[in-house]
Amino acid sequence: MTRRNEDFDELCDPENPQIIKYEDILEAAKRIKKFITPTPCLASHYQRESGINIYYKLETVQRTGSFKERGAINALQLLPRDSQKIGVVVASLGNHAMGICYYGQKLEIPITVIMPTCVAVIKMQLCQNLGAKVIVQGNNLVDAQKYARAYAKDKGLTYIKRDYPNIICGYGTIAVEILEQIPCLDAIIVPVGSGGLVASVATVVKHLKPECLVYGVQSERLPTFFKSLEAGEPITLPYEPSIAEGIAMPYVGVNAFYNVKDKLDKLLLVKEDWVARAILHLVENERFVVEGAGACPLAAIIGNLVPELKTKNVVCICSGGNIDAVLLGRSLDRGLAAEGRLIKFKVLIKDFASAYEELMKLLAAIGCNIIRQFQDRIWVENEIYRVEIKIVCETRDVKHALELKRIIERAYPDACLFETEPFNDDKTCPCYAKCK
């Protein structure tokens, strides 16, 4: 763990953080009104099972697929005309850049985007399609930001960072809409990366409805904001990849941190498997495609982290839907595995047709679908006439998976099941009660 050591930025000065006021956010809401249409806040199909009156604030329907547009258009409109003509530089992993690029094109402002090498190619392409100049520089976002600041200074361009006040004020317009759409709101759960969204939401909510709870949530893989709150100041952590890539930030925003640290009621950490299950639920049951970051609020509910919110009216901000096809597929598979609906096991059988038939009949008898299988005849020690079969099966639910587990272990005592969350003995596991 290290403390931040960046080039000085007067708009992100730890000694003099910029205070975000409710009035500033209200002005931003008026300013962006002609560009941003209020996004829907829809009731969840998970209300009955969870016991919570859940509503989804769907920022996924924005033109570029995330809430970042709100900050982008507010900041770009507030630039002096001379600065608009010269151009803007941003460093981003995707969503922030796409919002800037989209409205930069609309306002005829030249945009240069600095992206690190870890960014998905599709996000680079989307920025280029929106007319931006894309430069790939650095191994991570911190490196890209340092290069972007130096590039902007060298070229005389305006550098816009996600922690700047005008960006954060734009984000806060989400909370203004939510309180208009759900006036009887009891709590709001917000994804937390560098912290701009939760800082602006808390500013609005605590001004208009102080009794309403504001919870932040981030993946336990990279709990930078959580650790910063513990330390009492912004810190950095080594980067770790996460299914919630949009909020996998190794640093926190200075302005965001000092604006929210006394307003946030709780910061929750969620497991990667819970995020995968939340993505799966949103696709299967709600028919929404939401990226990992946007699924984190629901993941906190799935993980039973907020029992105090039972019977309450709770809004989960689905902050974005920009998840590429490969990651979406992996997330859905991981969600199925975490729910016990994909089971992997291996058995050693005689390398005869009758032995294969017996195994297949056993699986067919309980209604399991084979998704994948691999046969190994080479690395089977001292078993020249046997074959090791590795199988991935689809089951209906945890109960069905446990039935498969019992049958396989009874028929093949030496079988090895690769157990996932539904089979563990952790009593804090959301599936524990169902399993036992």
Structural class: alpha/beta
Contiguous low-pLDDT stretches (5 residues minimum) are 1-6, 424-436
How would a crystallographer describe the biggest sheet?
6 strands, mixed
Mean pLDDT comes to 91
Helix content: 40-55%
Strand order of the largest sheet: 2-3-12-8-9-11
Q: Per the principal axes of the C-alpha atoms, what is the gross shape?
A: globular
- Strand coverage percent: 15-25%
Radius of gyration: 24 Å
Treating each run of at least 4 consecutive H or I residues as one helix, how many helices?
18
Distance between the termini: 40 Å
Number of strands: 16
Q: Could you please describe the fold and organization of this structure?
A:
This protein is of the alpha/beta class and 436 residues long. Helices cover 42% and strands 18% of the residues. It has 18 helices and 16 strands. The strands form four sheets. The protein has a six-stranded mixed beta sheet with strand order 2-3-12-8-9-11, with helices on both faces. It has a four-stranded parallel beta sheet with strand order 6-5-4-7, with helices on both faces. Strands 14-15-13-16 form a four-stranded antiparallel beta sheet. Helix 1 (22-32) packs across helix 8 (165-171) and helix 9 packs across helix 10 (196-208). It is globular, with a radius of gyration of 24 Å.
Element layout with pairings:
Layout: E1 2-3, H1 22-32, E2 41-43, H2 47-50, E3 53-58, H3 68-77, H4 81-86, E4 88-91, H5 95-106, E5 111-115, H6 121-129, E6 133-136, H7 141-155, E7 158-159, H8 165-171, H9 173-181, E8 187-191, H10 196-208, E9 213-219, H11 224-231, E10 235-236, H12 254-260, E11 266-270, H13 272-286, H14 292-302, E12 313-318, H15 325-338, E13 342-350, H16 353-365, E14 369-376, E15 386-394, H17 398-411, E16 416-418, H18 432-435
Parallel strand pairs: 3-12, 4-5, 4-7, 5-6, 8-9, 8-12, 9-11
Antiparallel strand pairs: 1-10, 2-3, 13-15, 13-16, 14-15
